[in-house]
Specification:
With 410 residues, the protein is of the alpha/beta class. It is built from eleven helices and ten strands. It folds into three domains: 202 residues, TPP-binding domain (Rossmann fold, 3-Layer(aba) Sandwich); 50 residues, no CATH class; 52 residues. Helix 1 packs parallel to helix 7 and helix 2 crosses helix 9. The protein binds zinc ion. This is DHS-like NAD/FAD-binding domain-containing protein.
């Protein structure tokens, strides 16, 4: 993120820094019993762990991750391009990433980042290149299917465990899922949507002058011509008819935030993060991002302090290590290196293993767990049919047997 946007993000987060001082340590007088720290789930932590290696290593982190995702009620998730790679959308910075490909196509010099800089509108070649890039990204996003990891996030939300999803992605894949809706523009006052798009999204285009907004139309953004706003055009012709001075016609652009420019949702993002910090988040996942953007890094830092104050756990999941920044020291309790798309699979495997959660549960807890995981559905919903009832009973029997076996062996 460039300087002016960075400045906005940093202004927002400076406010947080002051406010976050008031949120710790948490004192919940309603609960007499002190909550057990989630870090107890990681005795003798031996990470960072590589995903999908040995079963023995997997046991060590799968229980902790499972414990967090199944027990926490206010999880914050911060994601980047890495979660959409599995959907066929290239990330920006890697060697096969979008910056590199478009740069080669247009024989451009300079950093990949310059292709997402507000200066792209300064000359025709860079405008054409930018249009080509947003078109490619838009068409890839339209054709992409959400990944298993996106679905896991949606599940967290429908189970009422997700406090907020902060996404840096402009592909809008997450917001198509139930429980992960967003609002554009982001309101400055609550209620806020589950998903906060930190850098806008490619589903909308906006007039830079009058602020008119509509669904993104890729055909308007071809070559170096910057499309005109029809709202401005109409207003201007009305003024002309009544003999008033022209005010000019605005240009349309995708509603994404470029480097070195103002984020129109900046103020609202600041309000949401402040509110989330006060809500005492009890778990955080940081996934598929290298945390290069200072404002996002600051959000992660402040949220992690709040999570630790609530005895929660912060998990890093990415192909790479967390950045070696002083600011992020001691932020992450569990570091998982690899493809985040392996996570749902690892959790399934652990849940169904002999060490899994179904051991030693009382019948009522077992029933509750099965309902939580969706292994059995509530008997009160939907239209009852003999066939459906039989299926539900069969599923319950199978799970019950598996649970009983676990109990005997433990
Ligand atoms: Zn306009």
């Amino acid at each position: 993120m460039g300087q002016s946007t960075m400045a906005v993000m940093e202004d927002i987060t400076t406010v947080h820094a002051a406010e976050s001082a008031t949120i710790s340590p948490p004192t919940d007088h309603r609960k007499k019993r002190k909550r057990k720290t989630q870090l107890a789930l990681l005795p003798g932590y031996a990470g960072p762990f590589k995903l999908c290696t040995e079963a023995a290593a997997e046991q060590q982190y799968a229980e902790a991750l499972h414990g967090m995702l199944r027990k926490c009620r206010r999880i914050v998730v911060v994601v980047g391009a890495g979660i959409s790679v599995g959907a066929g959308i290239p990330d920006f910075r890697s060697s096969g990433g979008l910056f590199r490909t478009v740069k080669d196509d247009f024989k451009m010099k300079g950093s990949g980042q310059s292709m997402f800089d507000s200066s792209v509108y300064q000359d025709e070649t860079t405008t054409a290149m930018f249009h080509s890039m947003v078109n490619t990204l838009h068409s890839l996003s339209q054709g992409a299917k959400v990944t298993r990891f996106h679905q896991l996030l949606s599940q967290l939300s429908t189970e009422r465990r997700l406090l907020r999803l902060y996404t840096q992605n402009v592909d809008c894949l997450e917001i198509s899922l139930s429980g992960l809706e967003t609002a554009v523009p982001l309101p400055v006052k609550a209620p806020w949507p589950k998903t906060i798009q930190l850098h806008g999204g490619l589903q909308k285009m906006v007039c830079a002058k009058c602020g008119w907004m509509g669904a993104f139309e890729p055909t308007l953004f071809r070559g170096s011509r910057i499309p005109e706003c029809t709202e401005c055009r109409e207003l201007d012709s009305v003024r002309e008819v009544v003999g008033k001075r022209t005010q000019g016609v605005g240009r349309l652009r995708p509603r994404i935030v470029l480097y070195n420019e103002f984020n129109p949702d900046g103020e609202a993002i600041g309000k949401v993060t402040s509110s989330d910090l006060k809500a005492r988040p009890d778990g955080m996942l940081v996934v598929g991002t290298s945390l290069k953007v200072p404002g996002v890094r600051r959000i992660v830092k402040e949220m992690s302090s709040a999570v630790h104050a609530a005895n929660g756990m912060v998990v890093w999941i990415n192909e790479e290590d967390p950045p070696a920044a002083k600011m992020l020291e001691n932020c992450f309790d569990l570091i998982l290196k690899g493809d985040c798309q392996d996570i749902p699979c690892i959790l399934d495997r652990w849940e169904n293993s002999s060490a899994g959660p179904k051991r030693a549960l009382t019948p009522s807890k077992k029933r509750k767990t099965l309902e939580d995981t969706g292994d059995i559905v509530s008997f009160n919903t939907g239209k009852a049919t003999p066939e459906r009832d039989r299926k539900i009973t069969d599923v319950f029997k199978i799970k019950k047997m598996a649970g009983d076996r676990g109990k005997v062996s433990s």
